Amino acid sequence: MATFPPTEGATRPTEEPPVSTELDRRDPALSGPRLRVLWNADEVRNGVLDLATRIAEAYRDAPVVNLVPVLTGGLHVAAALSAALERIVPGKWLIAPIFASTYAGDGVLERPAIDFPERFDRAIDPLAPVVLVDDLLDTGTTMSALVAMLDARGLAPVRVCVLIDKPQRRATPLQPDFFAFRTVDDCWLVGFGMDSGRRYRGLESICALEDADTE
Q1: What is the DSSP string of 120-182?
Q2: Burial environment of residue 57 by CB neighbours within 10 A (0 to 12, 13 to 18, 19 or more)
Q3: pLDDT tens, 129-138?
Q4: Which pLDDT score is estimated for 25?
Q5: What does the alpha-carbon distance between residue 188 and residue 185 come to, in Å, rounded to a whole number?
């Protein structure tokens, strides 16, 4: 089985990614005092493009790469990322989504629930590397379980790509191989796939929900 070790400068940004330090930024398209914009739509699009560029470089020698979106949260990121990757290197990206969840509600943790669709094994190339794609890495509990399950299926190497690294409540040693942004405080995030009560997933910006309970 072929392996592709990390490419220096490819799995981490060459500069420290933007952090959410501007607390009063507002997107005129968003209404209501509960939402605080951390990264606007243009910054999100540029972050996805940067991820695609680094992933394409990291796997430049791989003829095929499996992209495994973690739904539902990773849907928007995976759609935008796969489109950007196809523009850079067409025809080498296979998509095989899985379903996983850790939160029963805003800030309410439960045991990871992971579901592999019946067609998953037929949707991937078992000899190709795997990139798990999700919206953010928070505690790392679900993502660590996913990596272990894919390893157990004989898929390797497995790397983790998230739009946002949120290390404040990390409960495992897992770190993302690819990420675009990093939070500096423990806020509940919505937009671009992230939700609160199944709402706000479709926002193009990424916002903090001001009154969300993250305890």
Answers
A1: HHHHS-TTS-EEEEEEEESS-HHHHHHHHHHHHTT---EEEEEEEE-GGG--SS---SEEEEE
A2: middle
A3: 999 999 999 9
A4: 47
A5: 9
Give the distance between the most distant pair of CA atoms in the chain.
52
Helix axes 41-58, 75-88, angle to 10 degrees: 60
Q: Tell me the whole-structure pTM to 2 decimals.
A: 0.80
* SS3 at position 34: coil
**Residue 86, φ and ψ in degrees, nearest 5:** -65, -30
**Secondary structure (DSSP) of 41-82:** HHHHHHHHHHHHHHHHHHTTT-S-EEEEEEETTTHHHHHHHH
Q: Which amino acid is at 45?
A: R
Instruction: Please choose, from the candidates 69, 63, 121, 139, the residue with its C-alpha nearest in 3D space to the C-alpha of residue 100.
Output: 69
Q: How far apart are CA 131 and CA 177, in angstroms?
A: 9
pLDDT of residue 1: 41
Whole-angstrom distance, CA of residue 162 vs CA of residue 179: 5
For the chain, which domains are there? 35-209 (3.40.50.2020)
pLDDT at position 109 over 70: no
